[in-house]
Each structure stands twice: as C-alpha cells, then as structure tokens.
Write a structure and sequence with these properties.
By secondary structure, this protein is α/β, with parallel strands linked by helices. The chain is built from 19 helices and 19 strands.
Length: 491
C-alpha cells in the first residue's frame, strides 16, 4: 500500500492529498491544506508563488515526520498563469494573477494583428481576456522589463516542478490553455509565436500526462532530509485532472467541474474547430491520454465567494451552509444574471454589481442576502443548461445526465437546481476530483492501474456518487425561457 502524493492548487487554496490503492479501491488522506491568497502590490495583483512552494515543502516534512514513504508526486493547478526564469534559472518576479487589470481592453488590439477566426483555427481555444496569449501581449505592449530578461516561460505547475526538481518542462493539458499551442500540430505554434514576437526558445519541451518529469533535486532532498522522490507530469490543468476523475462508466458523457470556475463539456478525440464552436466561444483544451476537453468556461462560485467577502466587509459573516439555507428560503425566480457578464470578472462588490445588472436589464434587484444568493445559484443552474445544450450540439450527442465533480458539489442545493434546470439527472462526486485525477495518472504511469477506463471504474467503486433527479419541470422550463430573454442569450 504505497502512498503517492497529489498537490492540487486552486485559486483560493491548496491541498496535498495522499492516495493509496487497497483491495482495488482508492483510499485518500488530506495531509496538508493551505490558503492561496493573491497579493496586491504596486497596483498589480500577483500570486505568492514562493509561499506555495514553502507549503509544498511543509507537506513533505509532515510526511517525513509521520513516517510516510511517498512513492511519487504530481502537481495540478489553475490554468493560464505563468512565470519566467532568467539566464541563471532564477525566478523573474512573482507571476501575475489572471484577474489583474493589465489585460483590460487588450483583446481587440491583438485581434487587429491576428484575426479571431485565424487564432481559433490554430489553437481551438476560447477567447478569454486573461488567457496567457493576452497576458503576454499586454506585457509586451507595456514594454515590461521582465520580457527582456526572460529565458523560459513556465506555467504555474511547471514552475513549481522546476523548483522541486531543477528540470524545466511544459505539460500538454496546461500548455493548450495558453492559446499559443497548435491544436493540429500538438506543439507550440511557431508561426503564431513569430507573429507575436515571442521567442520560440522560451517554450520548451511539452510532456504528456503520465510522463516522468524528474525527481526531487539534491538541493531539496538535502534541505528537507527526504529521498529523491520521482515526480510525474499529470494532467496539470486542474480541470484536466478533474475530468480524469469523472466516474463515468459510459464512453460518451457530459461533465461539470464545479468550483471557483464552472467548466462544462465532454471528451472528444480531436478538437472541434468549426465556425460554430468559435461563435459559441467554446474551447478545446488538452486532456489525458489522447483526448481533448470540448468545454465552456462559466464564471462559477467565484460570484458567491466574492459576495460573501462583500458581506463580511459590511460586518455580516456568513458560513456557506448559512448562505445556502438563506437562498433556499428566498422566493424562487425573482431575478436572473448572466454569470459570464464581464462585470462579474474582477474582484469587488458582487451584490452591488448584481443589483446594477438587474436594473440594467429591467429587473427588480434582489433584496437581502437570501434573494441575492438565490439569484446567483438559480442563474448558474440555468447557464449550465444553456451550455450543456450547446455541448450536445457541437458534439452531436444527447447525454442522459450530467456528471458533477469538484468542491462545488458540496453545495447540494446547486446540484438539485442543476438537475431541475437541465431536466436530467445529476450524478455528483467525487468532491476532490482534481486531486483524485492527479493520483490516478500517477497510478497509470507506475502500472498500478491499466488505463483511464480502469481508473474511472476504480474511482466509481471507491467514492460515493449522489444522484439528483429533476424537480418542478414546468416551473424551471418557464424560468429558462425568462432567463434567456433577460440575458439576451440566443437559443
């Protein structure tokens, strides 16, 4: 029963999960959990990357002091963000946070150089203002001095792996999210890099999930007194790992990875690069074992988290269960928002922005905490239906239900309302999807599991999956029609 370690880094916290296989079932143990708080300095929002490294080292010390022998390590995190290594391999500044305002207004400027249709045909990636391509274009346009000294571009898991192993590698699932990776050549798009004036040598070799990515370096082993543990590239975009952990027994399925972001989609073997996919602003992100994730990014529980922070600043602290209870007790279908309206992207006063959105769209703003929470959760559930219908259109499939994974499934009210909104069952679990998918790729790499299909079967047998059935079909159908009209979303 050898232990392996998954580092799963989210936009608000990080966790280190131990995994072991026992009698054909997965056992997990949370070894360490820590906050991941961005830092505002000099008018810019950064990730505290060295604090994350410190916490990862504390995890290894906890394992050592607990007599735990770790057989291998994998790291997954959020996508799009990156750091630079300089001439001597040192970190050049703290990575920018994807919610930093330096990319405001940058998309139209880049499209003047490279048309949208050309960019999508090359990369198959959804247009979001914080994609790595737009961050780099913004840095270049501003003459940021980091670019003069940079020698290597490393995504967040790449960077942390480098700190632990001393080896610099990219990884497929995360590389695709940069919008700099060719969906057809399956490598960095050299023509695109040249058009943007980005040095090709910044972008090194790209590993596939399951490839060996080195071992803990001598410096780290001497510092911590631990052995040179092997490190694997996993599906290092956390959504890629979450999709590995979808406990689907069917070949074709739809999933929703639910957390700070909601990502709804399906697995395909080749990217969908049609004009319709571009018009719907869908994305084709790399997946594990020869797959792509055809999906839509939706703003997700970020709106809930920021609303909670706003109420705390006003002196009213609510737990998440309290907020859910208040939402359930509020009147149904009072007001709707489009969670993906750009007003909800930056940090700030979400309840105030929700009220302003409602006034702008001719609605009475929700009054009070419960009504605001209900507005958010109902709107998310209805947006999930909108996106799922378009997943089915692009994939040419009809799915019998929706698999939900990730921390958001602990909000059982959202799971219930999602089932009602889509008019199909929701199968919820596991909650720690990204970390479990991370572990699964390590087991496949070591030969403990045969392949992705066996991994999903074992996950299904190891973790509870809760089924939510649709309720109040006619009321939700009426609400959906109203939601489409208010948000101006097309059928």
């Amino acid at each position: 029963m050898a232990d392996i370690l998954a580092y799963d880094l989210g936009a608000s916290s990080g966790r280190a999960l131990l995994g072991r296989l026992k009698d054909g079932r997965i056992e997990t143990e949370e070894l360490h959990r820590f906050p991941n708080d961005p830092v505002q300095v000099g008018g810019r929002l950064h990730w505290d990357i060295l604090r994350l490294l410190h916490e990862m080292k504390q995890t290894l010390l906890k394992a050592k002091h607990g007599g735990i022998e770790i057989q291998s390590i994998g790291i997954d995190s959020w996508a799009v963000d990156f750091g630079f290594a300089g001439e001597n391999g040192e970190l050049l500044g703290n990575p920018y946070h994807y919610r930093d305002a330096h990319t405001a207004g940058i998309m139209p400027r880049l499209f003047a150089d490279i048309p949208e249709a050309e960019l999508f045909a090359s990369t198959g990636i959804q247009f979001l203002p914080f994609n790595s391509i737009f961050q780099l274009y913004a840095l270049k346009s501003a003459g940021n001095p980091l670019l003069r000294e940079a020698k290597r571009f490393l995504m967040i898991p790449d960077l942390l792996r480098y700190f632990l192993t001393g080896e610099m590698h990219g990884e497929f699932t995360n590389a695709t999210t940069t919008q700099l990776f060719s969906a057809t050549a399956k490598d960095w798009d050299q023509a695109l890099l040249a058009k943007l004036g980005l040095p090709a040598e910044w972008f090194g070799p790209v590993l596939a999930p399951g490839d060996r990515a080195g071992s803990l370096s001598q410096a780290v082993t001497e510092e911590l007194g631990v052995p040179a543990i092997p490190v694997y590239a996993v599906a290092e975009h956390d959504t890629g790992s979450a999709v590995v952990a979808v406990p689907a027994l069917e070949e074709q399925f739809a999933y929703l990875s639910c957390g700070t972001w909601s990502l709804i989609g399906t697995e395909v073997t080749e990217p969908v690069l049609t004009d319709r996919a571009r018009e719907l602003n869908f994305t084709n992100e790399g997946g594990a074992y020869g797959t792509y994730r055809l999906l839509k990014n939706i703003m997700g529980l970020w709106i809930v988290n920021e609303s909670r922070r706003a109420w705390e600043r006003e002196g009213s602290a609510y737990s998440f269960p309290e907020l859910v209870a208040l939402a359930e007790g509020a009147p149904a279908f009072g007001a709707f928002i489009d969670p993906d309206d750009e007003v909800f992207l930056p940090p700030g006063d979400m309840p105030g922005r929700i009220a302003e959105y409602c006034r702008r769209t001719g609605q009475q703003p929700p009054e009070g905490v419960g009504a605001t929470m209900r507005c958010i959760l109902e709107s998310l559930a209805l947006k999930y239906r909108y996106a799922l219908e378009r997943v089915e259109e692009l994939a040419g499939m009809r799915y019998g239900g929706l698999h939900m994974v990730g921390g958001g499934i602990q909000n059982t009210l959202l799971c219930r309302w999602t089932a009602s909104a889509i008019g199909k069952p929701v199968w919820a679990g596991p909650a720690e999807g990204s970390a479990i998918g991370n572990l699964a790729v390590q087991w496949i790499a070591s030969g403990e599991l045969a392949d992705l299909r066996e991994a999903r079967r074992v996950i299904r047998e190891s973790f509870d999956v809760v089924t939510y059935a649709p309720e109040d079909a006619s009321a939700w159908e009426d609400a959906y029609r109203k939601f489409l009209r208010i948000t101006s979303l097309s059928q």
